[in-house]
C-alpha cells in the first residue's frame, strides 16, 4: 500500500495546484464590447455570468461595440497574491518548497491573456500563467471558437458554433460547472480533500477537446464533443501534467441546459456526461496501461437562479450534483500485484456543491457555499498517509465556505474603466469531515478541523 499512497499524494498535489481558478472578467472584453464588467459579470469581476455574459461567450467572444485603439487589442493581464493560514500548520515534511508550514504570503498567479474577437464569426480566450507556488508556468484555460453563426428560424434564432478547448467545462456558459464554479479562487497552499470526480478537474489543462453546440431561442443549449489527453511531449511544452491518467481513445462529453430569462431574473437547469477510459498515471507525464485501464462515467445535474433587479441588490443560487461510476481495473490490478492485496474494481463517488451569494451595487458581496463528497471505502485510490491520506480509505469530506468581497471598480464610471479592475476578498473554509473522518483522518493524528483555512487575497486585472 505504500506505493499507492505515494501515488495518491502526488495526484493530490497536482489537483491542488490545478484548483487555482481565474476569472474571465478581463479588460480586453470590456474594451472590445464597450460595456462595463458589470454588464457580463455579477459582482463586476466574475466569473459568474449574467444573461448578456452567457450570450457573449456562446457567441464566440465576437460581440463588438467598443471604440478606440484599446478595443482592437485583445490583450490583458492579471495578477493576484494572497495570505493563507490553516488552523494547524502542515507537517514540516509536507510543506510546499520555499514556503513555511503556516501563515504564508504567496504570489499565486501572474497571467497573460490573448482574448477577444477575431472576425464576426470567430474569437477565443487563451490564458498563460506563472505561479510562484510550484514556481512554474503553464498554458492555462483555453477556449477557441473558430466558427460561430446564427440562423433565423421564423421568429426564433439558432446559434451554432465550435469550441476547441483544453479542459472539460471551460467552455460552459453556466457557472455551476467546475472550471468556473465556486469557490472561484482558492489557496494553492492549503490542504484540500483528495476525492473529486474526474469531471471536476482531473483533465484540466491536459486534454484537447472538440465540441459543437447549438443555442435555440436563447433558451435550449446543447453541446456534444470529445476529449483526448495530450501526448507527454505536448504536456511538457505546455507545462501541464497527467492526474488520473492518459485517455485510451476519445472521451465523449455531452451537455444540455434550458434557461429562462424574465423581469431581470434568470434561471437554468441542466445535465452533463463525461466518459473516460484511462491508463493510470504513475508520474507527472507517465502512464501505464499494462495492468489494464480505469473507466470513469460522470453524470452531473445542475441548476441556478439569478435575481439581477436594477443592479442594487443581486441574489444568486447555484448547485450541482455529480455521480461517478468507477471501474478501476488498471489501478486495482497494479495495487494487488505490488502489495499482495485483493482489491475489487468497482467503486463510486458522489458530490454535491451548493452556494448562494448576495451583492450590493455589484461592489460588496458575500457568498456561502457547501460541498459534500461521499462514497464507499475505496482502498485502491485512498490509503493512510500523512496530511493527504485517508485512514479508513473513505472519500468522505464535508466543508462550508464563506467569502466576503469588495470590487471597487468594474462599473461604467469606475476609475480607468475598462482598463483596470480589482477584487479584494476574505475566505474561510470549515471542514467537519476530511478524507473519510472528522478525527485522525490520515492515520497520523490530524483532524479535519486542522485544515480549516483563512485565505485573504488581492486580485487585479488590467
From TrEMBL:
Source organism of this protein record: Limobrevibacterium gyesilva
Signal peptide per UniProt: 1-25
Keywords: Signal
Superkingdom of origin organism: Bacteria
Protein name per its UniProtKB record: Cytochrome C
Record's keyword annotation contains Signal: yes
Amino acid at each position: 500500500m505504500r506505493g499507492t499512497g505515494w501515488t495518491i499524494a502526488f495526484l493530490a498535489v497536482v489537483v491542488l495546484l490545478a484548483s487555482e481558478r481565474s476569472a474571465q472578467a478581463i479588460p480586453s472584453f470590456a474594451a472590445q464590447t464597450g460595456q462595463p464588467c458589470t454588464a457580463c459579470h455579477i459582482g463586476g469581476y466574475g466569473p459568474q455570468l449574467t444573461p448578456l455574459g452567457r450570450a457573449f461567450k456562446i457567441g464566440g467572444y465576437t460581440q463588438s461595440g467598443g471604440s478606440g485603439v484599446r478595443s482592437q487589442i485583445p490583450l490583458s493581464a492579471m495578477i493576484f497574491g494572497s495570505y493563507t493560514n490553516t488552523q494547524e500548520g502542515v507537517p514540516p515534511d509536507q510543506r510546499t518548497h520555499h514556503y513555511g508550514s503556516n501563515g504564508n504570503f504567496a504570489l499565486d498567479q501572474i497571467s497573460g491573456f490573448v482574448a477577444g474577437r477575431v472576425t464576426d464569426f470567430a474569437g477565443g480566450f487563451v490564458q498563460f500563467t506563472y505561479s510562484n507556488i510550484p514556481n512554474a508556468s503553464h498554458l492555462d484555460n483555453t477556449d477557441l471558437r473558430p466558427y460561430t453563426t446564427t440562423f433565423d428560424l421564423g421568429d426564433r434564432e439558432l446559434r451554432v458554433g465550435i469550441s476547441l478547448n483544453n479542459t472539460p467545462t471551460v467552455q460552459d456558459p453556466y457557472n455551476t460547472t467546475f472550471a468556473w464554479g465556486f469557490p472561484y479562487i482558492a489557496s494553492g497552499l492549503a490542504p484540500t480533500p483528495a476525492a473529486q470526480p474526474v469531471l471536476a478537474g482531473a483533465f484540466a489543462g491536459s486534454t484537447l477537446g472538440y465540441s459543437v453546440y447549438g443555442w435555440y431561442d436563447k433558451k435550449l443549449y446543447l453541446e456534444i464533443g470529445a476529449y483526448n489527453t495530450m501526448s507527454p511531449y505536448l504536456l511538457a511544452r505546455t507545462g501541464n501534467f497527467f492526474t488520473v491518467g492518459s485517455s485510451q481513445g476519445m472521451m465523449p462529453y455531452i451537455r444540455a441546459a434550458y434557461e429562462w430569462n424574465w423581469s431581470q431574473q434568470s434561471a437554468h437547469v441542466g445535465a452533463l456526461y463525461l466518459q473516460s477510459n484511462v491508463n493510470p498515471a504513475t508520474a507527472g507525464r507517465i502512464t501505464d496501461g499494462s495492468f489494464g485501464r480505469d473507466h470513469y462515467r460522470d453524470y452531473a445535474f445542475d441548476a441556478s437562479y439569478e435575481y439581477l433587479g436594477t443592479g442594487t441588490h443581486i441574489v444568486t443560487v447555484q448547485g450541482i450534483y455529480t455521480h461517478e461510476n468507477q471501474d478501476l481495473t488498471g489501478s486495482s490490478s497494479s495495487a494487488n500485484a505490488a502489495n499482495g492485496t485483493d482489491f475489487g474494481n468497482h467503486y463510486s463517488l458522489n458530490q454535491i456543491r451548493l452556494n448562494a451569494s448576495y451583492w450590493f451595487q455589484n461592489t460588496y458581496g458575500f457568498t456561502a457555499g457547501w460541498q459534500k463528497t461521499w462514497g464507499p471505502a475505496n482502498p485502491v485510490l485512498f490509503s493512510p498517509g500523512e496530511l493527504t491520506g485517508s485512514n479508513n480509505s473513505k472519500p468522505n469530506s464535508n466543508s462550508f465556505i464563506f467569502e466576503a468581497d469588495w470590487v471597487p471598480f468594474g462599473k461604467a464610471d469606475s476609475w480607468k474603466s475598462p482598463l483596470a479592475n480589482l477584487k479584494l476578498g476574505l475566505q474561510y473554509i470549515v471542514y467537519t469531515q476530511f478524507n473519510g473522518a472528522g478525527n485522525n483522518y490520515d492515520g497520523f493524528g490530524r483532524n479535519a478541523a486542522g485544515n480549516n483555512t483563512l485565505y485573504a487575497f488581492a486580485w487585479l486585472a488590467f
